[in-house]
Amino acid sequence: MDLGLQGKTVIVTAASKGLGKAAAKQFAEEGAHVLIASRNEAELKKATAEIQETTGNLQVQYTVCDMTDAEAIKRMVSYGVSQFGTVDVLINNAGGPPAGTFEDFDDESWKGAFELNLLSFIRTIREVLPYMRKSGGGHIVNIASSSFKQPIDGLILSNTFRTAIVGLAKSLSQELAPDNILINTVGPGRIATDRVAHLDQVLADQKGLSIEKVRQSSEKQIPMERYGEPEEFAKMLVFLCSEANSYTTGQAFLVDGGLVKAL
């Protein structure tokens, strides 16, 4: 199937590794022009070179961006437009906030999680909308977590702000539909990334177990009996942002191997 992404401009944030990097690679394989961003320039350079080499797509560039910095977000979008002419697709992504329970966090921790995991998405959407409207439409996908459907123990910051992302997208889907801009949310379950490995290690330390035991226990809770691969998650993003999706907006999807049982 031709997904119609050849020559489209895609911005992927927090894309030097993990889910963001996997998404950027999948879009590059479809022939899109891709701008990746994160705070770590060394990792960005490495990821850009790897994506270019493995996909054969040289229209992959990077820019350094701290997603808690409003001016940096503006510069990121402006740079993408200067290189590729417009923005057709935005993949909103950000690193996860610290693990912990309610009494572990003070006001500064809550403010930091808000800026990184919700306000950054709001700011980036704000910056790309004029270009999408000018070109007659676009696609936005916000990467959240399976916690928007079923809270995860010990991740109160994530549980709170990932749920807010769903509310944001649902509201914006109503406002942006007349402009032919579709916005959806996708939540990963247990995907084999550095972030999940870190959370497994935190749990292992708390329980005095090996990380292998923690992973085995997690896998038993997943009907498919394994963690997902970043590429599997990324394929859902590519579909939702392709010409194959012309009518689905305001929805929240899980890519979790059946982990979450809640309706």
In round numbers, the mean pLDDT is 97
Strand composition percent:
5-15%
Category by helix and strand content? alpha/beta
The value of Rg in angstroms is 18 Å
- Unreliable spans are none
Structure write-up:
The protein has helices spanning 18-29, 41-55, 70-84, 107-135, 156-176, 194-207, 211-220, 230-240, and strands at 9-12, 33-38, 60-64, 89-92, 138-143, 181-188, 252-255. The longest helix is centred in the middle third of the chain and has 29 residues, at 107-135. It has 263 residues and is of the alpha/beta class. α1 runs parallel beside α2 (41-55), α1 (18-29) crosses α8 and α4 (107-135) runs parallel beside α5 (156-176). The protein has a 7-stranded parallel β-sheet, sandwiched between helices. It is 48% helix and 14% strand. α1 (18-29) links the parallel β1 and β2.
